[in-house]
Amino acid sequence: MTAVYILISNGDDLFYEQLLVSLYSLRMHNPKLNVVVLVDEKTERTLHGKRSKVRELANEIKIVEVPEEYNSKERSRYIKTTFRNYLSGNLLFIDTDTVITDNLRDVENTNADMACVLDFHCLLSQREDKLHFGERMKRVFDIDVSEILHYFNSGVIFIRDTPAVYQFFEDWHNYWLFSAFQKNENYDQPAFLMADLKNAHFIKELGGEYNCQLLTSIEYLHTAKILHFFNINWPGKERFSPFFRNDLYEELKQTGEISENTHNLIINCKSAFYSPMLFADPRESEFTSTLVGTTLYLSFLRSGWLYKLVDSLFKFIKNVKHALKRIR
To answer: What element of type H or E holds 252?
Structure first.
């Protein structure tokens, strides 16, 4: 089996540094596993000096030809939706925003040509954003997903080398091309779902421990083999763990090496969380995912004028109510 990463980075971002952490952690537990990092030519030219450590940890840095006019995100998605074509044998794709915590060899015991973990570790009908997601699928692909149960996260993908898998990737890539360049929606997972539907629910469910998505559930934290720290705009996530903060990766950018402190964080990543850290119930999560909730919450975190205005308004109303009660 070959572990596969994709890196598109110009040096101004932190994607290389995230890859370095993930690859370093993978080598701790899987020293003999074959690892290939797929890059475009522009990225490969930057992998020197403080950005060369990845060459020591990976077995191969493989250049993939990508349309010259594509931007960085399009280049990344192009390679992700075609990576089956560049390598032979069983493959385990892993997103760069991950930390590996165990040996991964048992994933090959999966009885499927392709397997992934459910997105958010739940059925689509259980998600707080199911209506928003349904609207997106209707807008982009003109499909009703209200009866669909399984929506998979593409951050970790196990695939075998079979004709059916190649067909799936061809469909995935074509759906992504349509979504990105006809509908201006450059996301790979909705296209991933469309390919799954076209191929008669081809993707099978992989155990949650192979893609523990910490922002949405800690159900698999104690058994996790791969911790997935989302690279998404999630208000306040920096307060949860060092792996959600940029500080750790900025240090790597400056030194190019894994420090003793970072090494220890990686070893103890399952307990590398700040305290206190409180649970949020589904309704709280739903509120903060709305435009109003996100705006107010970000304003609160930044001590912004909008939060202060709303807070002052509610305090005024509360004082008025108390005054009226005393009068009565």
So the answer is: helix 247-255
